[in-house]
Amino acid sequence: MKQHGYRMKWWGWGREGVSFDLAHRQGIVDYLHEKFAVKEVIYQRDFNWRDVVLNASVISFSVREKLQNLLGENTVFSDDYERIIHAYGKSYRDAIRLRSLAIAQAPDVVVYPTNGEDLVKILALCEELQIAVVPFGGGTSVVGGLEALPLAGGVICVDLARMNRLVAIDETALYARVEAGKFGPELEEELNLRGYTLGHFPQSFEFSTLGGWAATRSAGQNSTHYGKIEDLVIGLTMVTPRGVVVLPAGTHQACGPDMKNILIGSEGVLGIITELCVKVSSLPPKKKYVSYFFPDFASAFTASRELLQNGIVPALIRISDEEETESMIKLNRKPARKLKRVLYALGFSYFHLMGFGAGKRVLMMVGFEGSRKENERMHSLVHEVFRRYRNLYVGSSIGKSWLKDRFFLPYLRDDFLNNGILIDTLETATTWEKIGDLHHRVIAAISSAFSQQGVNFSVFAHISHLYKEGASLYFTFVANQQKGRELAQWHEVKKAASEAIVAFGAPISHHHGVGLDHREYFLAALGEREKALLASLKNAYDPAGIMNPGKLL
Question: Which candidate in 289, 474, 521, 541 is catalytic?
């Protein structure tokens, strides 16, 4: 059995032994009682991987021996633990199946290459023997991007954790060459030591890799300022069954279609990204995150649009709709001493007095990253625009709390599942004139599906990735699980939301990718010529169809 510095617990989110600790989160406990009628809260639950029923490996000892001879000692694993931790990602569907302690289709073998030459050998053998190849970065996919769909010869999972070097930093052109298996915290720490940052902080940051970000077109929480991953990547190397593709670091050009953007977002179906050249920026010396209450979602996102279209681009803008704002306030309520409780109550009395009571407020958080002087200047520009809108400035305490907990929030899903609560997310994007309509339609579709099930539920959304032309919408839905039909219940709601998004003409994903879960809707939105183009790309790079079968196509 191998130990992994950045690996999550096999059955849930985050490090072993770390949980949200509901016993010290009174607001969450009250929320479960009041909103979902949970009578007795379960504070802790654990699972033993030895109890998992696993499909037998179909790859023979002789094939494993061939792999060992090709790659060297301590690189090929077929023990149950390795197969279990590489079987699924971290979607709601994955979590339910893992908690059932039965895995119908785990990879047969897990291999750990150390360089691109290893990968060339692996793909050649897999093509010869018709073995499916599933690339694995951090294992954080929430759309079924890692699920093994076997070919005749079985499935091999290729874990890139050992291809994790920061190769070089070009301090003239400000870019770094980095191997694809580099995990977010390690990359950021090494860049910071040299005075730089990538500025890419997805919520999965602690457990995801650079290669995974590129393969799925990831967006970090500060993408409004730094850009999505496709904006940061200026070159890459990919190993395919038909050879190695090298796109050296470069700037803008007019030499036909952009091959870089064809390979980014390909989700392992064409080949495996092994190295990337990514833009870096100077590490900001100060961070200042402030918050405002606006009276409604529309006025908040209209004000944010005005900021961007006037060239005012903070490090972060995050706008929670009315329902998310109230849920955040309730969930963050903590036990406190009497004086603190009194001050807390006085603060909310003031909000109510100013016309920003419950249900009449939308929280907008705005982040600035730079020198103290730069942050103050940017803040004053934001204030100048916001003067034209009704709002209430509420200082920096909410922003400080969010920065502290932003990578910790996903742990909460396991606590909710322990208490019979479904919680999941999905995201899309559209142009500014359609934001309000799309928000309403998706909320209505999810609400209708839950209403038909007859369960308690809550649906809310936020905007967190903004552009001059539009923004993303990120939806969260929470409900009582229907015992015995947890996956069927989830599928009904996911289907309703996805159909509403596709019917609207919006993308099925803004930054989580396609995987298995979104494939049907992704293909439904494509024309026949576009499908044919994708199929021809697949045939050019992977004619035997061994690369991550079933994803995208």
Answer: 474
